[in-house]
Amino acid sequence: MAGGDAVSVEYLDPEGRRACRGLWEEAFPEDSVRYNDWYFQTKVAKNRILAAVRENKHGDATSDGGATSDGGAVMGSGKANVTFGDMHSDGKTARPSPSAHDILSMAHMNPYTMVVGDREVDSFYIVGVATREKLRHRGLMKRLLQRMFADLYSERMPFVFLMPVDPKIYEPFSFAYFCDHVPMRLRPDVSVVAHKVAFDLDLLAAWINETISEKYQVYARRDKAYLELYFEELAYENGTVTYYCSGPTQPRPMVAIEAYWGKDQETLRSFLVRGDIYEVAGDPKPAYMARIIHLPKMLSCLHLKDSCEKDGLTATICVEDPWIAENNGAFAWRLGKTGSEVRRIGDAGQALPEDVLCISIPDLTQWVFGYRPLDELAVVKPLPDWTQDVRVLRGVFLDEVV
Fold it and tell me: Which of 69, 113, 277, 308 could crosslink 389 through cysteines, CB 3.0-4.6 Å?
């Protein structure tokens, strides 16, 4: 860094989170002022922001103001590694909050409750990953992601996800695509009635969750709070929502929701449809990438197929993970009809059973989320017989956009 300043990696406190807007606007000039106002007043108040912060020669960040030590998104339990403004154990901030000038790189971690199979887990949607233009390719993002992986592993978070501008940025850190965007529209032969009137948000959330779960096992759970933010976000980008109802009886049941947004150019924000009254309107395109963080917690979401003759089995899986040491090695995976358990049994180099599955974290991600079958992945063939009995997740639905 210029002048020999050191750089620390830390979670920004409320004042620091507001100060990072300068870097956001530098990195994402296409966002409107109106949208940024909403994002920093609403989303940033509830998320975590991990940042690389410039320190002066005395080890303190230069600052335009005082510090506050409270605030920040907290999910689940076991947050010993999460600190704001480099806080001491007594709750006092060790130094002032960084100014906009001192924030060199950042990653926003927006919290979501995800449905994964038959359970709900905490996850983060990683957005706003940015580094000041003159400081790119100096390893700052690497340091952020390493800290993020370590902290979230200690919290037993199964996975995180993001929508990449360029997948090559994240592939070196073992992110892999796990969800496509599939353009869809209502079939022209289906008779529907369009409504613009808003529905009760609790009922609407239940309808959306039920509709998504018809086809997918992994999605962001909707509730009233989720939808309130969703509609606020749409409003700040001149969005509109249309509800479609169809059927021979009155009142006609709702069958689809379509939302558009865009201040300068209107684009489709989301489309949800129930049943088979839609058609595919274009080729699927890879959209979201995921990164498994806590391997045992992630694999615990899987279980044996109902068709498996056995009530349980124990398999051996050898995982290659160059970034999270706890995931790198050999594991005993005990699967049942309702879940599974994983325990570490050694390192990757030790003698292993013949029916071991050796797999990298990116390939494992694509397999367990149902994105690609094992026989299409770069794993040793022939595949162990037991892999045919594992019920992987039935697809991912995401339409989160920032």
Answer: 308
